[in-house]
Amino acid sequence: MEKSLIKIFDTTLQDGEQTPGVSLEIREKLEIARALAKLKVDVIEAGFPIASPGDFDTVSQVAANIKGPIIAGLASASIKDIDAAWAALKKAERPRIHTFIATSDIQMQYKLKLNREQVLLKAKEAVRYAKQFSPDVEFSAADASRSDWDFLCKVYAAAIAAGATVINVPDTVGFTTPNEFGNLIKYIHDNVHDIDKVDISVHCHNDLGLAVANSLAAVQNGATQVECTINGLGERAGNTAMEELVMALRTRKEFYQAATGIDTKHIDRTSRLVSTLAGVLVSPHKAIIGDNAFTQESSIQQQGVLNNSLTYEIILPETVGISRSSIVLGKHSDRQAFEERLKQLGYDLDADIINRLFVRFKELAERKQTVYDRDIEALINEKADAAESYRLTYHQVVSGNQTVAMATVKLETSTGIIEQATLGDGPVDAVFKAIEAAVGLEINLKDYAIRAVTSGQDALGEAVVWVERDGRSFSGRGLSTDVIEASAKAYVNAINKMLAAGGGPGDVIEKNV
Ligand code: MN
Predict the structure, then answer these.
(1) What is the pLDDT of residue 94?
(2) Which has the minimum average pLDDT: 11-25, 295-309, 338-352, 379-393?
(3) Phi-psi category of 196—alpha, beta or left, where left has phi over 0 and alpha has psi -120 to 50?
(4) CA of 75 to the centre of ligand 1 (A)
(5) In this structure, are 79 and 143 located in the same domain?
(6) Of the given ranges (93-97, 368-372, 393-397), which has the lowest mean pLDDT?
(7) Interior CA angle at 135 toward 14 and 215, to 5°?
(8) Distance 205 CA to ligand 1 centre (A)
(9) Is it the case that residue 510 has pLDDT exceeding 60?
(10) Choice among 150-159, 296-305, 320-329, 463-472 with the minimum mean pLDDT
């Protein structure tokens, strides 16, 4: 049997950005797109151009700047959506318009208020219209897994006849199971005219925890493209996690007789970048990318791994880019050693960025005995924000079990320094209230999380806060060996992002595929 090549279609920037609480800035999306290109994904879905000016700009900047992968833009089956998608995509080396319409009876009746004949016609017309602009057109039948199989096949055949190059089978609501979905893919494969001339794609949601399993069942039954996101981000329970799907296909390649073009050694780094920028922490027992994924606790297993790592480890950590090297840097490391380590970690950065990172590295090394690779990566992901209305220059907190917490902060703005002191319910609350008083805004704090970047008492703490205004949420991050300082920086960062984005609720647009 010949090994089939499975294309990886990444939708972290589209479906993944619909993760509740996630709102990425354009430069953050560009950074993720660059990492995805390094990972060698086949397709990057960069956004939904008609949905908002921000989405439009993201798609056009990704299209203009990211070389290698196909760049896709989403559009519902309407002329104005497709026009917007093409306007955003036209600078891409390899553009793809991705158009969709729902085909399940429930969604046609209650969402679209159209009958089957009308939907069939719209699908055909949308693909034909998109095809005038882009030779590569993907067609999705939204809610395919709950659609009538014969009607679905009719719609796909019409889309292919109109010029679709990829037909996508979404399990939009995460309802299907592996056997059922595998059978559906086989049915489509056996009953749609000219199906062998196009890619069969799948797009699974994880509402029942089956997204990866359903995607693998589809691969066994003829799917040649899988849509997924880094860390499984996405609305509700998320999408197929790319790292799991890719590593399942790689680890069990003899069983699946399939391979992907993904450069797996970039998986761990890309996962951390997305987690940091999106502000969504990965649970420690998450497959492939969780902190515990390669940790052996039981001593029998540890001995086995020491004798031969494959005794218990089915994946070598190096395969996904986790280094076992014990090289650490400290306060005596010079700029050259620092730059050398950055190169070994795979970062290719401009000299002025390295200079700025080296200053941060020295500050960190003064406070922390050993600086690990993960600390360096955290510094790289931290980066200064483009628009900083406020900068935290000083903070002091008094707290204890017999006293009310009190915080003093100084914030630097373009017009001078603002100082405020307030009492609070614990040190973090006190410092947040002092910042709020200093900026003079009522801030709606939605969530707050803190974690250690590495182990040890002097570990770097990474704080993430989410604030909300007019129904939009903004995440802020802060990094320090002092958790109160990390929290305060994260809060100021979130406020800066909120102010940079301006007010006004975004348009609410249905973009469920
Ligand atoms: Mn989706």
Answers:
(1) 98
(2) 295-309
(3) alpha
(4) 13
(5) yes
(6) 368-372
(7) 45
(8) 7
(9) no
(10) 296-305
Query: Can you name the residues that pair with 101 across neighbouring β-strands?
Result: 141
Nearest-angstrom CA–CA distance, 155 and 170: 14
pLDDT at 460: 84
Q: How confident is the model at residue 382 (pLDDT cuts 50, 70, 90)?
A: confident
Using the mean position of ligand 1's atoms as its centre, give its distance from the Cα of residue 512 in Å.
6
**Tokens 């700009």 belong to which residue?**
57
Give the predicted TM-score (pTM) of the model: 0.82
Q: What is the CATH number of the domain that holds 20?
A: 3.20.20.70
Tell me how far apart the alpha carbons of residues 376 and 354 are, in angstroms, rounded to a whole number. 11
Q: What is the pLDDT of residue 299?
A: 60
What does the alpha-carbon distance between residue 498 and residue 426 come to, in Å, rounded to a whole number? 25
Q: By C-alpha distance, which of 181, 138, 169 is closest to 43?
A: 138
User: For residue 511, how far is its CA from the centre of ligand 1 (angstroms)?
Assistant: 8
Cα 30 to middle of ligand 1, angstroms:
21
Query: What is the distance in A from the centroid of ligand 1 to the CA of 103?
Result: 15
Asked, for residue 400, whether it belongs to a domain, the answer is yes
Same domain, 330 and 410: no
Strands ordered across the beta sheet of 461-469: 444-452, 461-469, 472-480
Among 107-121, 140-154, 203-217, 378-392, name the one with the lowest average pLDDT.
Answer: 378-392
Q: How far is the CA of 78 from the centre of ligand 1 (A)?
A: 19
N-terminal to C-terminal alpha carbon distance within the chain: 33
Residue 287 counted as domain residue? no
pLDDT at position 504: 37
pLDDT for the residue 384:
55
d(CA 35, CA 388): 25
Tell me which residue has tokens 């390669």.
Answer: 294
Number of domains in the chain: 3
- Name which residue leads in pLDDT, 312 or 161: 161
Ligand 1 center from residue 460 Cα (angstroms): 35
Instruction: Say yes or no to pLDDT of 457 above 80.
Output: no
Print burial letters for 260-278: b (CB count within 10 Å at least 16), e (below 16): bebebbbbbbbbbbbbbbb
User: Does the residue 310 lie in any domain?
Assistant: no
CA 202 / ligand 1 centre spacing (Å): 10
Domain that holds residue 352: 323-381
> What are the pLDDT digits (tens) for 392-419?
999 999 999 888 999 999 999 988 999 9
Same domain, 340 and 411: no
Distance between Cα 182 and ligand 1 center (Å): 19
Q: Are residues 139 and 12 in the same domain?
A: yes
Same domain (yes/no): 348, 258: no
249 shares a domain with 207: yes
Q: How many whole angstroms from 471 Cα to the centroid of ligand 1?
A: 21
